[in-house]
Every structure is written in structure tokens, then in C-alpha cells.
Amino acid sequence: MSGPTRVVVDPRLGPVLPARAVRLVAAAPVVLLDPSLPAALAARLAEELDAVPADRVRADVPPGAVLLTAGPDPEAPSGAELLEAVAVMDRLRAPGGCPWDAEQTHESLLRYLVEETYELYDALAAGDVPAVREELGDVLLQVVFHARVAAEAAEPRRFDVDDVAAELVAKLVGRHPHVFADEAGVISATDQDVRWEELKATEKRRESVLDGVALAQPAAALLAKYVSRATRAGVPPDLLAAAVPEGAPAAVVASALAGGDPEGTLRAAATALGAHLRAVEASLPAPGDGQPRRTTPEEWRSHWA
């Protein structure tokens, strides 16, 4: 007599049967659980399918029986390992998990977020593929970790990793109407860059092209971000160049040689540029009907002081 038909269940996907095996399992006179299945998954399958542990069946199994066993599903969707990452983090934070992980807060994790981000930056800049893969995982850990901490918070501060993913999906879909809603007008990467900022400004009701820029980033990055935002908004390059204090890069070197604060020198330049841009924006006509401001280079010039 032939043995039961073996069906592989991927633990990463939880109690989800492969689509090709659903009817087979539904028609089986008995569903057996292989010892290879994790205990929690086996318990779910036992409850939902009325399955029984294979090692408890002493008599010959009837024809058509199915044996569920653990293993990777070759047809599992891309991203299945992300579910495993979430499950591991849940285990680390749960009672009986890791004491260190259980003690962490958003605040205590901040320095690791900064460190891991810079390490990923270095790996990418060096073109070190194994290091990039590893450092991307470390940055992903920060996302999963912070989402798990938030899932334990009291309302209204509570959210979980699914909320994070759902908001990301909504943002990507909403800011790509030319892909998901057949919106015309975007024909190049440059067009999309501009359209992205317009949609973001509408979503977040931003009054300035500089709203939403993270001020905690290094001064050089802050200055570069201001210049990028202003360029997208149509500020002519010559006006931007004139707005940055003359010789700012040289001043950074001189400050370092003199034992000064190069970071402060660049931050002062960024602050001065930001203040000037906001002052010019204040003199421009306000956008109407909740639409983002669309200012031409000529309008920037006419209001530039």
C-alpha cells in the first residue's frame, strides 16, 4: 500500500497551503502532520484542518491521506522571508525572548539607525555587493524593530509593520498615477521627479518647497537637499549659486585648519539659503484650490532680492 501524499507547507507563510494542493487536502480522509513542522504552525493546521500528528497514527493510513511537511515552497511569492524577519522580531520581543531586545525603545535605537544607514552608504559607495546585502538587512532590521516597538505602544501611538507597509504601498501608488491610474503627462524620469514633489506637496499640504526636509542630517546633505528642492521648484541655478555664501567650501577647509567647526560653517550656509528661499516664497502669490505652487524661473527672478 502506498503511503500518504506529501504536501510541503512553507513555515514562512504560516498555515497557507500551496494553491495546487488545496483540493487534494480538502478531499483527504485524513491529514497528517510531519514532526518537521514548527509546533505553532502544527497547532494551527491541526485546528483548521483537523489534522493529526503523523507519529500518533499507528494503523495503516487510508488511501488518499495527505502528509503535511515543512519545507520551502518554490512558488512562494517574493518577500516571503520578510514574514520570517517579522516573526523572528516578534519572538525576540515576546516574553521569554531576548532581554536586550525587549528593553529597547524608539529613543534607544536611534543611534543604531544612524550607524547602520552610514554603513550601508559606505558599502554602496564602495560597490561591495556582499556588504550591501548585509547592510540592507541591518537597515531592514531597524524598520522591523521600530514597527514592533510601536505595536506595543498605547493608542494613539500604536501601529504595526502592516500599517507601515500599507502606507508605503498607498504612497507609491498615489505618487505614480501615470502607472496605476493612466495619468498622462509623465514621459521621462525628470518629469516624474517634478510630479513626485507636486503630489507630495498636495498630500502633506506643504506651504514651502523646503517643508519636510530633515534638519538633523549633516550640513552638507542639508545644503544639497535645499538646492535640490529649489531646483525642482524652478529656481534658476545662478540665483541659487548667488544665495550660498561665497567661498563656503573654502571656508569649511579654513575652519577645520583653524580648529573651528566645519559642520557649523556649512549648516550656517544651508540655514541662510533656507531663510532666503522662504522669504521669496512669502512674496509669491499663494497657490489656490489646494494645488501645489508652480513657480516659473521668471517669477523666481522677479521676486528674488
Order of strands in the sheet with most strands: 1-4-2-3
Task: Report the oligomer.
Answer: single chain
How many separate structural domains?
3
> Quick check: average pLDDT?
84
Taking all Cα atoms into account, the compactness measure Rg is 28 Å
**CA-CA gap between termini:** 92 Å
Element string (H = helix, E = strand): EHEHEEHHHHHHHHHHHH
The biggest sheet, with number of strands, parallel, antiparallel or mixed sense and barrel status, is:
4 strands, parallel
Strand coverage percent = under 5%
* Principal-axes shape call: elongated
The percent range for helix content is: 55-70%
Number of DSSP helical runs: 14
Structural class: mainly alpha
Quick one: how many beta strands? 4
Q: Show unreliable segments.
A: none
Model description:
The protein is mostly helical and 305 residues long. It folds into three domains: 66 residues, no CATH class; 94 residues, Helix Hairpins (Orthogonal Bundle), CATH 1.10.287; 99 residues, no CATH class. Helices cover 57% and strands 5% of the residues. The chain is built from 14 helices and four strands. Strands 1-4-2-3 form a four-stranded parallel sheet, with helices on one face. The radius of gyration is 28 Å and the shape is elongated.
